[in-house]
């Protein structure tokens, strides 16, 4: 059986990390595409030379030609610009929308059967626009954010409780912005609801509130510390988990920016919701019971995403 083909559009910080992870895991052969000339080819050479040391078999090719992504099984999109300290993700919309247009066309023309994972920010609007530009079915285009945001929430909770991160099952819904909704009612420490565990451990409720706030601002905290660029290790790891769920038909339930029509009172929007990922792409959006407060928070978050879609439509008439 031929190896799977993974196309990475954008060979920057996340793209390079994705290539390394995908190669180490022998997920398939890899094409690292970027508009910058030489850079993806250089990274591909460097990464290929890890093979003999790490013992992986994967062909890694750097390219500036969309023809090289032909027939890819999975495409992960990080093309565009990251934010700098003082910026919001939404400030990237104008420039990254144009990037999504060229990437969407490249995918449509070369690998229309691929499963496409978008990472570029502002995430929920960009995955929507990428889907529109590519014309792929909604179940084959998804955005990565909830896996990352949930991992941040889990990390901070594990630090607070002094427990293993492996035992924390944290859940973040909504748009990938400061209004995202960490859902404590579905967050458990090996099955024990987080608020109950906090009582057992004598952790005051306001500490959990602070962790929720830190999670919401988790991307910005790293942007501030790095000074130039944004997080890349955990974002790449998150997207790889989603790609593995698709390639392995794992039917994992992951929080992803999926197309939601009908559920959660939404009418055709990409936003973070629990999603079954298997060989059919995003096979199902799971609608969970939320408290009135959680519903209200989710509404604030989805309203913010809807506003961004209006901005996209204003900037590119083909989206209107
Ligand atoms: N969804 C999420 O949770 C996260 C999203 N991000 C976003 O991911 C994106 C990428 O981040 P990094 O890899 O750190 O940025 P980066 O700047 O290191 O890499 C982006 C790459 O895209 C390339 N590029 C620009 N225009 C292109 C085009 N038209 N076609 C192909 N390639 C193009 C650039 O040459 C650059 O190499 C940013 O928008 C960032 O905000 C970052 C972290 C988490
Ligand atoms: O904060 C940013 O700009 C990058 C991002 O989306 C994240 O790390 O969550």
UniProtKB/TrEMBL annotation:
Binding residues for substrate: 83, 89, 121, 152
* Key words, A-Z: NAD, Oxidoreductase, Tricarboxylic acid cycle
**Which E.C. number(s) belong to this protein?**
1.1.1.37
Q: Which residues form the Lactate/malate dehydrogenase N-terminal domain?
A: 5-143
| Lactate/malate dehydrogenase C-terminal domain segment(s) | 148-304
Q: Which reaction does it catalyse?
A: (S)-malate + NAD(+) = oxaloacetate + NADH + H(+)
| Annotated positions binding NAD(+) | 10-15, 34, 96, 119-121
Q: Which SUPFAM superfamilies match?
A: LDH C-terminal domain-like, NAD(P)-binding Rossmann-fold domains
Entry-linked Pfam families: Ldh_1_C (PF02866), Ldh_1_N (PF00056)
Q: Which residues form the active site?
A: 176
**GO BP annotations, alphabetical order:** lactate metabolic process; tricarboxylic acid cycle
In the UniProt record, does the keyword Lipid metabolism occur?
no
Q: Which GO terms describe its molecular function?
A: L-lactate dehydrogenase (NAD+) activity; L-malate dehydrogenase (NAD+) activity
UniProt-listed InterPro entries: L-lactate/malate_DH, Lactate/malate_DH_C, Lactate/malate_DH_N, Lactate_DH/Glyco_Ohase_4_C, Malate_DH_type3, NAD(P)-bd_dom_sf
Which family does the record assign? Belongs to the LDH/MDH superfamily. MDH type 3 family.
Q: What does this protein do?
A: Catalyzes the reversible oxidation of malate to oxaloacetate.
In Swiss-Prot or TrEMBL terms, this protein is called: Malate dehydrogenase
């Amino acid at each position: 059986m031929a190896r799977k083909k993974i196309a990475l559009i954008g060979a920057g910080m996340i793209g390079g990390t994705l290539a390394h992870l995908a190669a180490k895991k022998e997920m398939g052969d890899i094409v690292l595409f970027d508009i910058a000339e030489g850079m993806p080819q250089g990274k591909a050479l460097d990464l290929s030379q890890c093979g003999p040391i790490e013992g992986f078999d994967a062909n890694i090719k750097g390219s500036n030609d969309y023809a090289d992504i032909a027939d890819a099984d999975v495409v992960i999109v990080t093309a565009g610009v990251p934010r700098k300290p003082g910026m919001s993700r939404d400030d990237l919309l104008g420039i990254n929308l144009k990037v999504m247009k060229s990437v969407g066309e490249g995918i449509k023309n070369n690998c229309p059967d691929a499963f496409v994972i978008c990472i570029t920010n502002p995430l929920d609007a960009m995955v929507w626009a990428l889907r529109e530009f590519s014309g792929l079915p909604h179940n084959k285009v998804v955005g990565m954010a909830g896996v990352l945001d949930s991992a941040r929430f889990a990390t901070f909770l594990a630090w607070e409780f002094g427990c293993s991160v492996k035992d924390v099952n944290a859940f973040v819904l909504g748009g990938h912005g400061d209004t995202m909704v960490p859902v404590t009612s579905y967050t458990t420490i090996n099955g024990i609801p987080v608020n109950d565990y906090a009582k057992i451990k004598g952790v005051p409720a306001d500490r959990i509130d602070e962790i929720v706030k830190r999670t919401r601002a988790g991307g910005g905290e790293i942007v501030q510390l790095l000074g130039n660029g944004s997080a890349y290790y955990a974002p790449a790891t998150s997207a790889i988990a989603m790609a593995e769920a698709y390639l392995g038909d794992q039917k994992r339930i992951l929080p992803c920016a999926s197309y939601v029509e009908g559920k959660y009172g939404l009418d055709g929007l990409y936003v973070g919701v629990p999603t079954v990922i298997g060989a059919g792409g995003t096979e199902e959006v799971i609608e969970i019971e939320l408290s009135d407060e959680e519903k209200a928070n989710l509404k604030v978050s989805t309203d913010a995403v809807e506003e961004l879609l209006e901005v996209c439509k204003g900037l590119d008439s083909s989206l209107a």
